[in-house]
């Protein structure tokens, strides 16, 4: 019978192919497989998304106050609080960079996320977003009535939904819905 993982060796390093060559798994020596503790030793890598600079449009104003970011533009104002592992640097020429303050696994996870959230804030307050939807089905229709959108989707009754104040909804040809905001 084979010995449980880590039972015969006090500390063993295993190569983990899906994490790449620089990352390894360390299995601590314990008596049973259930109690085996697996620790991942991560050599921090730079995020492909996180290291890209963010272009700040000329009609957008930024306010960085510690870990708080406020973005104001023609379409509104947004705010976001960053964790301590992430730092914002405003450079000349309307460039914003997101960087890590520490080299931890959590910082790696947050780096790309907060760069993308910041970029989406810039686009949202300057140009806005638009999504086109199409209803597919016999008898499916949509119409805007005042502040509501009315959908006929095969139920015995029409479905009414209130349109949020921050969104604009248009209906083309009864089956195409354009949501923007």
TrEMBL record:
<feature type="domain" description="Large ribosomal subunit protein uL6 alpha-beta">
    <location>
        <begin position="136"/>
        <end position="181"/>
    </location>
</feature>
<dbReference type="GO" id="GO:1990904">
    <property type="term" value="C:ribonucleoprotein complex"/>
</dbReference>
<dbReference type="InterPro" id="IPR000702">
    <property type="entry name" value="Ribosomal_uL6-like"/>
</dbReference>
<keyword id="KW-0689">Ribosomal protein</keyword>
<comment type="similarity">
    <text>Belongs to the universal ribosomal protein uL6 family.</text>
</comment>
<feature type="domain" description="Large ribosomal subunit protein uL6 alpha-beta">
    <location>
        <begin position="56"/>
        <end position="128"/>
    </location>
</feature>
<protein>
    <submittedName>
        <fullName>Mitochondrial/chloroplast ribosomal protein L6</fullName>
    </submittedName>
</protein>
<keyword id="KW-0699">rRNA-binding</keyword>
<dbReference type="Pfam" id="PF00347">
    <property type="entry name" value="Ribosomal_L6"/>
</dbReference>
<dbReference type="GO" id="GO:0003735">
    <property type="term" value="F:structural constituent of ribosome"/>
</dbReference>
<dbReference type="InterPro" id="IPR020040">
    <property type="entry name" value="Ribosomal_uL6_a/b-dom"/>
</dbReference>
<dbReference type="InterPro" id="IPR036789">
    <property type="entry name" value="Ribosomal_uL6-like_a/b-dom_sf"/>
</dbReference>
<dbReference type="GO" id="GO:0005840">
    <property type="term" value="C:ribosome"/>
</dbReference>
<dbReference type="GO" id="GO:0006412">
    <property type="term" value="P:translation"/>
</dbReference>
<keyword id="KW-0694">RNA-binding</keyword>
<dbReference type="GO" id="GO:0019843">
    <property type="term" value="F:rRNA binding"/>
</dbReference>
<keyword id="KW-0687">Ribonucleoprotein</keyword>
<dbReference type="InterPro" id="IPR019906">
    <property type="entry name" value="Ribosomal_uL6_bac-type"/>
</dbReference>
